[in-house]
Amino acid sequence: MIVIVDERELVTEGYNSLFDREGVASAGFAPSEFDAWVSSAPADDLKSVRAFLIGDCREGAVSPRQIRDRTGAPVIALSEHNSLENTLRLFESGVDDVVRKPVHIREILARISAIRRRANEDSTYTEIGSMRIFMDGRDPEIEGQPMPLPRRERRILEYLASNRGRRVTKTQVFNAIYGIFDEEVEENVVESHISKLRKKLRERLGHDPIDSKRFLGYRLIA
């Protein structure tokens, strides 16, 4: 999930729409709402955040260092002012990157992946058995051949791969794929997506690579 913070509701709604087209969950906050949320959100909710985008906010209203105290997710400033002084000020505040607007959503996602990769939290792809699972939106490959997947199933597979070796709950998968504030979609939709994904993987691999245990969650195995 991507979290966008901006004074203007029209801006946060616009980014939410654009990320949704890419199959990426997002949530928008006004600075006053964000401060209260990030300081009190449960750790599991923060783990579902892939990055924070800080847009037009009153100076001092959002503290990147406060975010860093609670999560290691990248913090990217979206700047509308093309000046060296403003860029240096943003970096000094603790952000990981400064992006000049306008910027394409795919460039933002690429920058997020690059930051996480440098922090050894992410890589271009993960190989599990004969599967190569990309983290940049490309379809996975099995034995070198692409396996087209609907975006939600692809994102679930990416999330399972990024948590290789760990078991994740249905709630964690839902939060990562749909966002923690999506009240229009039932959490049980995850079971439907994973059932379809398992069937496709079983047909291509000859076995089921998703290990599931009731009440404990899912884990991707070789």
From TrEMBL:
Gene3D superfamilies, per database record: 3.40.50.2300, Winged helix-like DNA-binding domain superfamily/Winged helix DNA-binding domain
OmpR/PhoB-type domain ranges (all copies): 123-222
Classification via SMART domains: Trans_reg_C
Keyword Lipid metabolism among record annotations: no
Listed name of the protein: Two-component system response regulator
InterPro entries assigned to the protein according to its UniProt record, in alphabetical order: CheY-like_superfamily, OmpR/PhoB-type_DNA-bd, Sig_transdc_resp-reg_C-effctor, Sig_transdc_resp-reg_receiver, WalR-like, WH-like_DNA-bd_sf
Pfam families: Response_reg (PF00072), Trans_reg_C (PF00486)
Residues in coiled coil: none
Regions recorded as binding DNA: 123-222
Higher taxonomy: Bacteria, Pseudomonadati, Pseudomonadota, Alphaproteobacteria, Hyphomicrobiales
PROSITE patterns per the UniProt record, alphabetical: OMPR_PHOB, RESPONSE_REGULATORY
Domain Response regulatory: start-end pairs: 1-116
GO biological process, alphabetically ordered: regulation of DNA-templated transcription
PTM sites of type 4-aspartylphosphate: D56
Organism: Mesorhizobium hungaricum
Keywords: DNA-binding, Phosphoprotein, Transcription, Transcription regulation
GO (cellular component) term, any one: cytosol
GO molecular function annotation: phosphorelay response regulator activity; transcription cis-regulatory region binding
Keyword Transcription: yes
